[in-house]
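Workshop exercise sheet. Pairs work together: one partner reads the sequence aloud, the other fills in the structure field after running the prediction. Swap roles for the next sheet.
Pair: D.N. / O.F.
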Amino acid sequence: SAAQQTPAPEPVRHACACICSPPVRTTRCERLKARVAQATSRRAPASSGGSAAPSRRRRAADRRNMSPASILLLSVCSVALTPPQRRPPKPPAKPPASKQRRPPNNVPRAQKPKVTDGLAQLRSDAQAGRWREALATITTAEGAIESARDAGATFFPLPVEAYNLAITACGNGRNHEEALGVLRRLTMGVSPEEGPGSAQAAKRPRPDAVTFNAAAAACAKAGDYQKAEQVLKQARRFNKLDAILYTSVISACGRAGQTKKALAYLEALREDLGRGDVVAYTAAVDSCARAGDWLNAERVLGQMIFEDKVVPNLRTYRAACKAAAAAGEFAKCEELLDDVKDAVQIAQGARFWGPRDHAACFEGVLKACRGRGAWKEARNVLERLENEVTAGNNEDDVEAVERAATASYVAAIGACARNIDDDAQVRWSCARDLLDRLEARLKAPSRKSRLWRTKRERRQAYTSAMVVAGRAGKADEALKLFDAFEADNLKPDTACYNAALAACRRSDVGKYADFAKRLWRRCCDDDDAHPDSLTAAEAVACLERAGRCSDADLIFAEALELGVPLKQARSAGPQGVAKRSVAWLDENSEYDVSGLSVPLVKCAIRKALKDETASDHTADCVFITGVGAKKAKDPSHVPLRDSVLEFLKEFDPPLNAFVPKDAQGTVVVKRSSLLDRLDYDDEEEFVRGGKR
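Structure field:
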């Protein structure tokens, strides 16, 4: 800009130069650079030095004296005059080669070989409980190692982690016997004093603490406390005791109902290891809760906090609340729930103090209330659950809280159906209200996507409500619930059929006899439900009340043909396992009716007398009833033997029946008394057939 404002001082010389010299072609960048240099020389002061090249300090001073427009123009020119960097020449292009396609892989995806790590596969099997696959993997590897050793090749034994994963897979698959078999492989013939260089160690590794912990955990899941004690003894022999092992043994004793043993092992843990941890104390309190022993649960909780200085978590409080509710100490339960509320606010979502554990605490209390039939307390606890538990924004916590809330509603409705006395009408109102609230909660737009996951819980809720309606004498309401149950695409199970039949039996005499018969037919034809002894007893009782003995006998005959277990007899076996018996004919002319309900006994007697009359037996008819030992505990109980004697007197003419002195648990009907009942118009036919 300065060059444009100042005219050229020597125009003639410039003109002469232009005439005399040949024309020089300059670029625009060069012209810009010349103008900037001219403007700089005019603004700069006269220099005294003789050096042609300006120093760095002088150039900086020149920059300070330049105008902003000149500095901008100089920077633009310096960029423009920078010689461009030439790119290296591209190599000559190669001629295009013909592409060779890979041959198509026609092997199906399922048949392609999978290259996976053996331990990774064992971890997957252990997590999913695939114990057969895990044992097959271990056996195959041991066979390969044995073959390598016989061939003299270099081999290495399996790591102990592989055996631990196999034991865990057996435990998750509910097969603790196989888990103990894997442990037996590692401990059989092994001395605890042997070192890693022994001959046995070359074949199989020595068990570590994780091995015994996994075996004890498998026994705890099965509730086999005796096998868990054996694992503890072996771990003591190998000096592999830790708190996890003791916790599994305590849990196994609690599940088996051995509360004293569980508390004894807690004391042994404190003696061997100095003090227990929060998991061991929680297992001990839970064992007390299963037995409804609030005093011992309170003592263990105080020992945990004040003696061992162990801070309880929400799972510990859950077990304590469950113990208080199971013992009927609802005031203590309310105090514990208040403590839980304050602790949750202080913890603010710490581990084991989140919303899912808080909701699970209420769920345990409500299940204990269901066991005692405390429906009023269950309703109050359910109100506290809805007011105090917030799911938050975590999706997993929301899912867990919703699942716990659904189970809590089901437990509260189930509490209304337990131990019903004279307050059946009030219980029915409460159960109906809770069922409506549960359905409204599950069918809300925000929760409708989880509706299909709660089919089992909804079925239990409907069944409990039907039981309450039947006990309240509202058979119509119970059958409406049964219809609504099916209209909502929920398949009824055996318990649902039993509740509907019980409501029909408690209704007016003969009102729902035909409906009960249809329900029996539907239950027999339903693939998802199988009739049991209660189904047959309720259907027969409903028809017996209506005086339709022929239909009742027909249902009894169908139950025998279908192999329905009409009675349930306990025999020697694992605790909690009941062996069912469908046989009611012991020998010729001897019928075992013990364990049957009175309506089924009547059908059995009629069928037995009919068969004995048409047979060629000569012995007396004997009914095995039992001596009625329950009467010693319950004076109001009527022994089955007395009911059979009364029923035999109702025949016309009455049958000659008595109780022999040497067999007090039987009722004998004389053969002559059976023959007297024959219709003498058909006597020649019986004689002709050799039946008389």
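Discussion prompt: The chain has a mean pLDDT of 78. What would you look at next?
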